[in-house]
Specification:
Layout: H1 2-7, H2 11-38, H3 44-64, H4 78-105, H5 107-114, H6 125-145, H7 149-173, H8 178-201, H9 212-221, H10 224-250, H11 252-289, H12 293-327, H13 332-354, H14 357-360, H15 364-388, H16 393-418
């Protein structure tokens, strides 16, 4: 935290980051504690089915708003921001309706495609989950624009608490993955509901005048988000979740182990990476103008490495020996997987903040190309693994992901070294 203080530009900025970080810490702590309980209620196979549901929702959420939600904090005009908000809502609704129609007309074909017959009872939750998850993401960017960081933090805590409670309570009375899936749905429901309150009570959302002409103009002004940010995010998200879907279709129990391991390892990535990303982003443009971006980037990498490398080494060393005790004997495989994916997540926690330099310098096309490479590498490795090394799919995913983030890191270092004046 002292390292973060040294590079934060203002006390107000630090206060906002602290509020967001505190909310993330508490919500992730609740999630981690809940996982210990859930692992003793649900089976690895249940988590395997739930992992497919979560993967489908996560990929579809990226598609739903065409990433126009990311542009909401940018306009100087409040009316333009509301136009982006309503456009994001409309696209989210349209995508959810499309998915509903597809699942309603072709349910069997959809289940065959993902090779998950156990998901048949929960298909109706997929379009609802997509819609609410999309709305929650959109409202987060609106709350960011309005600087309601306290609301965002409180919402994260509320959704983690109630979502986890639902998963525990339902799991005690109903066998199977339904409680896990319903709890994930509840995360989005409570999050959307909580963030929607000030939109209607304070922001006069219904008193805004909308016109086709203004909507078309705003869409044109921010066309880079659907053209570049949308496919970049889609390839990034797909490269994370499609391998999980593929693994679940062949070895459901392994997907359950992998799902838990990734969720646990994502906690430090989320906590540290998000805060540092905002710090780096706030300083990057000035550093580029001053010709200092390379030194700033190297300095930040070193500061992250100072605490991240020992942390992940310790996690990798002890996890194979403790998770059977913490989660139960049937979950000992999780500890082994965590050790395998530690290098991947260590590199990700370093790369994630500094990757924003590509957007600051308007190099969205490069960012897209890198994500395409990541998608081809990771998904391609899994496909080849199925053909020749089907018993080592998790190991292949861990290795291919680590290779991708190492390549990404080397590229970003070289990129910042070549930057002069922006």
């Amino acid at each position: 935290m002292k390292t973060l203080r040294n590079i934060l530009p203002t006390s107000n900025f630090y206060k906002n980051i602290s509020i967001l970080t505190l909310g993330n810490v508490l919500s992730n702590l609740i999630t981690a504690i809940a996982l210990i309980i859930l692992a003793r209620i649900y089976t690895p196979e249940d988590f395997g089915v739930a992992s497919v549901y979560v993967s489908i929702i996560s990929i579809a959420i990226v598609i739903s708003s065409l990433r126009l939600n990311m542009a909401i904090p940018l306009p100087n005009s409040e009316e333009d921001a509301k136009q982006l908000l309503i456009l994001s809502f409309i696209f989210s609704l349209l995508i959810s309706i499309f998915v509903s129609i597809f699942i309603f007309i072709f349910p069997e074909q959809f289940l065959v495609l993902i090779n998950q017959p156990d998901l048949s009872e929960f298909l109706w939750l997929i379009p609802l989950g997509i819609f609410l998850g999309s709305i929650y993401n959109v409202l987060q960017f609106w709350a960011t624009r309005k600087k309601r960081f306290k609301d965002i933090s409180i919402t994260n805590i509320i959704r983690s608490t109630f979502g986890s409670l639902i998963q525990v309570i339902v799991g005690l009375f109903i066998l199977g993955p339904f409680g896990l899936i319903l709890g994930h749905f509840a995360y989005a429901f409570f999050g959307s509901f909580r963030l929607a309150i000030p939109l209607f009570s304070k922001d006069n959302f219904f008193n805004t005048t909308y016109s086709f002409k203004n909507t078309t103009r705003v869409l044109k002004d921010y066309k880079k988000f659907p053209i570049f940010s949308f496919p970049e995010s889609l390839f990034n998200t797909s490269s994370q979740y499609i391998p999980l879907i593929i693994i679940a279709s062949f070895i459901k129990i392994e997907a359950g182990f992998l799902f838990i391991a990734i969720r646990l390892m994502s906690l430090p990535v989320t906590l540290i990476g998000k805060s540092i990303s905002q710090v780096y982003l706030s300083e990057a443009k000035t550093k580029i103008h001053n010709g200092e971006i390379y030194n700033f980037t190297i300095s930040l990498i070193k500061k992250i490495a100072v605490f991240a490398v020992p942390l992940f080494l310790i996690i990798a060393a002890i996890s194979p020996f403790i998770f059977g005790t913490i989660l139960g004997d049937q979950w000992s495989r999780v500890g082994i997987i965590i050790a395998m994916i530690a290098p991947w997540h260590l590199l990700q926690i370093i790369v994630s903040p500094i990757s924003t330099v590509l957007h600051v310098t308007n190099n969205q096309q490069i960012a897209l190309n890198i994500q395409i490479i990541g998608f081809v590498l990771r998904v391609g490795a899994i496909v080849l693994g199925i053909m020749y090394f089907s018993e080592y799919l998790t190991e292949i995913l861990a290795l291919s992901s680590a290779i991708f983030y190492l390549f990404y890191l080397i590229y970003l270092i070289n990129f910042t070294q070549k930057q002069k004046n922006f």
